[in-house]
Amino acid sequence: MCLHLHGPECNAPNNVWKNAQPSESTTEDDVIVERKEHYLIREQIWIVVPKLDLGNYFYVNRRHRMPGDEGDLVLSNFSETLLKVLRTFYGDFYGGSPERSADTMLPDIPVLQSVIEDIGVHLRADATESNIADKRAFAASRGCQEAKNVLHPESFVDQFLSELREHLSVLTNYLLELYKPKAEKLSLQLANGCIEHDLLASGFCLEHRNYYKASGVHLTGTAYSWDGKSYLQTPVLFAIPFYNGTKDLDSLECRPLTPEMEAKLIARGRLYTALSGVHYRSYGGGANPHPLVPLPQSGEAPDFPEEHLWLLPSCVHGFNLTKKMRSTFYVTEIEPVSFDHNAWDHLVLDPATKVLIKSLVQVTRNSNSFASKTISDVITGKGGGLICVLHGPPGTGKTLTAEAVAEHLERPLYVVGTSELSTVPSELETKLKSILDIATAWDAVLLIDEADVLLEQRSLHEIERNSLVSVVLRVLEYHRGVLFLTTNRVKVFDAAFLSRFSIAIKYPEHDLHSRRVIWRKFFELAGVKTKDAGGSGRSTPTDMVLLEDPSQVATMSEAELDELAEKPFNGRTIKNLVRTAQALALASNEPMSKAHVDIVVRSQEKFLHEFANV
């Protein structure tokens, strides 16, 4: 039944209406006309032709809305066999006389052809018990529920499938013939790299393998993604707004998949699956903040079907340890971390102390991993972790020690300042637990810098201070990872912390020999050669630029090193002086020399003198 709304002057051919009063109804042939205030309601009844013959598997009805129009093709009167299978495709095929527009069935041609092929496979299969069970299950999935009942012989199932193949073949051949002019037009347009808007549904549905570069609404698809525990199939919706004429395929948000693009997407999918789970990686691209919390897990990620690799997304969720925020990252920009295994050698510290630290962290190499048991009977503390306190003046190597340990263990370094915590006990416990959870989840070496505020001694008159210390004691006691605490004021620590520390190391002021070694090492990192050193022997870090032009190679004599070592600078200041001198030399397009270093040294000494006399 069709409902048409027309104005009072409407005189559509072959549609009879009378000048009835409002709310009056009249009937003329097969049209019921009801006149309202300045409009008519015409209810035209389409007469359903009863299906009296069994030789036809369906009827094709051409319905004209007005004389001379092309008409709409509607399929009806389907055979019982077709009805069974079509009900598995369309949820609205349970009425008395279900119908379907021919245009809406055109995109289903590949599915119908696939069913026909599957029927042939099952009918040709050997009559083994497994094959017969599969055939019954297939027939049931295509509408023949009786096939589940083993009381029906195999011949019953074969007869249904044979009839279904015949009926579907007739239906598919008709749809293919109907689609042929449109297919030829579509093929010509695709060959020229363009497509009309009216052909989009046919083009995409019949190609049925597409990729997209933006989201919207109109076409639907399927994609897969990793949720931290498993791969999930998710629907994808995207839009192509209406446009006149043709449009280049390359300008569409969704386009047919080419073999070249499929190969790229498969390669990207392999990168994506390699990142499923928990990994520590380097990233060089742009990241988008993401509010969701990834779910770190133990064990291996499940295998992903090879044929679906191209359906995996371009980004993964992760945690940026530098910016301390969860983000999404492009998989093509993610690379393995290049660890500096020589960082430990550049740490200027008493050799015996270096051996002690390295030995302690060595036994924790596998203790906090996700595949092995924690070593809890070697390292002190209930958590079975390693808690180190590094105390001493600024620039003596405390932070570098934590960095060198992280490089040695090949783990990320998670640096936290006390400004990121809180002096309110309830807030501190929440934030500190969150930080420790992150460090544990990513198997990171945790460095809490300037921890004096958290560890300061309790007193009888400061209830909040006492609560603060109690919170830190309770939380740190159960940490299972490697934790470094740095401070310049170890004497203010509460005595209760002493038994919680695995080791406490004092970093003294650098003596003449230590400063000389530090100057040499930073000169080497900057590409400056000294008399008894031929270069850095390692890759240059991001804060140093190694000069590759032989004519630009700088040198520094032993006497010049001795002169610089006399200056009472700490390690961090020496690094900054070398970096500044190098920048000065690069700006002048000349090798770095003692003259450049002297300029920045004099500037630093002047500043320190003025600072001391303020």
TrEMBL record:
SUPFAM superfamilies: P-loop containing nucleoside triphosphate hydrolases (SSF52540). Residues 384-509 form the AAA+ ATPase domain. GO terms for molecular function: ATP binding; ATP hydrolysis activity. Keywords: Hydrolase. InterPro entries: AAA+_ATPase (IPR003593), ATPase_AAA_core (IPR003959), P-loop_NTPase (IPR027417). PANTHER family: AAA+ ATPASE DOMAIN-CONTAINING PROTEIN (PTHR46411:SF3), FAMILY ATPASE, PUTATIVE-RELATED (PTHR46411). This is P-loop containing nucleoside triphosphate hydrolase protein.
